[in-house]
Design goal:
7-stranded mixed beta sheet, 15 strands, 6-stranded mixed beta sheet, 22% strand, alpha/beta, Peroxisomal Thiolase, Chain A, domain 1, 9 helices, 336 residues
Length: 336
């Protein structure tokens, strides 16, 4: 028997890892959004002094990591592992940032669910007694994601109403085996759910079923009810995916409408900013959670949250071969 596993897919941490440092860096578009004051740095432009957007993304990921390390109050040399990922081929933003950080590196890929997946893995490493400090980070960039998954922005392709705007940013946290700060208490690993959505301009519909599945598994495994959380936060479902998520949960007898919010609808002002159905990208859940939500917990307005970060597990190759879009959702509970 696995003594720390609860139910089908959930881990209860016996020694809940503590979040002792956070870092959030965003692009200029995000810096004009409603959460701007809670981000640690806002880039003056999309290139960040680099000659390509890919290099800019790597640089902003490094900056978020350094901010989290500085805020943690520990020396970089004390960090046992760096767990990070992004959206680009072979997670080059994460691996090249690891080259600069010189910390033992574990590269992970969960598309836009990477934030929660990395935090869950880092928490398992600490709770298992394999490390005292783990740095977790992820990033995305509007230009790089458009170039890889859709069309280069220079082509000025018209987006559909269901399209989401990839967040330019990076979020990082330092997890510790002891200390003061919010704690990661539960982690539920999602399974791949694919209901046949093939439209790469409608990620929300592709990911919503996986988010709902993970929520239901988490609640069944832990015995919790939705109202025991101050906030049930989904990663980047956008307006369409959020509505589907709520409807699917209601069909299963679970009412999350009162305390559910979506990072993809929080980071931008959809009335004032042209972002389609909302935001997406690895950085979406990361900067909203590590930047805004953890600051809200520090301010005392939130005490217990459940983050379900969602990802669309497609690639240009799978799309070209006519495959549908598998979805995934990973959940972590954070408590003060």
């Amino acid at each position: 028997m696995a003594p720390k596993k609860t139910g089908k897919a959930t881990v209860k941490f016996g020694n809940p890892p503590v979040i002792i440092g956070t870092g959030s860096v965003v692009g200029p578009m995000e810096g004009r959004g409603p959460l701007a004051e809670d981000f640690d740095a806002v880039l003056p432009d999309m290139t960040f002094g680099e000659n390509t957007s890919e290099k800019a993304e790597r640089k902003l990921l490094e900056q978020a990591a350094w901010i989290a390390i500085e805020r943690s109050g520990i020396d970089k040399g004390m960090i046992d592992y760096y767990v990070a990922g992004d959206l680009l081929n072979q997670i080059i933003s994460a691996s090249f940032s690891a080259r600069q950080l010189e910390i033992p590196f574990m590269g992970v890929y969960g598309a836009c669910s990477t934030c929660a997946m990395g935090t869950a893995m880092g928490s398992m490493i600490i709770d298992g007694g394999f490390a005292d400090y783990v740095l977790v980070a992820c990033s995305s960039h509007y230009h790089t994601a458009e170039r890889q998954f859709r069309y280069p922005i220079e082509l000025n392709v018209q987006h559909k109403e269901t399209s989401q705007y990839t967040v330019t940013g990076a979020g990082a946290i330092v997890l510790a085996s002891s200390g003061s700060g919010p704690k990661v208490t539960w982690a539920t690993t999602g399974k791949v759910v694919d209901l046949g959505v093939k439209d790469p301009y409608n990620f929300g519909a592709a990911m919503a079923p996986a988010a709902c599945d993970t929520l239901l598994v988490h609640l069944a495994d832990t015995g919790c009810s939705p109202d025991e959380y101050d906030l049930i936060l989904t990663g980047d479902l956008g307006i369409i995916g959020s509505q589907l998520f709520i409807e699917l949960a209601q069909e299963a007898g679970c009412d999350v409408g009162n305390n559910h919010r979506d990072c993809g609808l929080m980071i931008f002002d959809r009335k004032a900013q042209r972002v389609g159905a909302g935001a997406s990208g690895c950085a979406c859940a990361a900067v909203v959670t590590f930047g805004h939500v953890l600051k809200e917990m520090k301010r005392g307005s939130l005490k217990r949250i459940l983050l379900i970060a969602t990802g669309a597990l497609l690639s240009p190759l799978s799309f070209q071969q006519g495959e549908s879009i598998p979805g995934i959702g990973h959940a972590i509970a954070i408590e003060v």
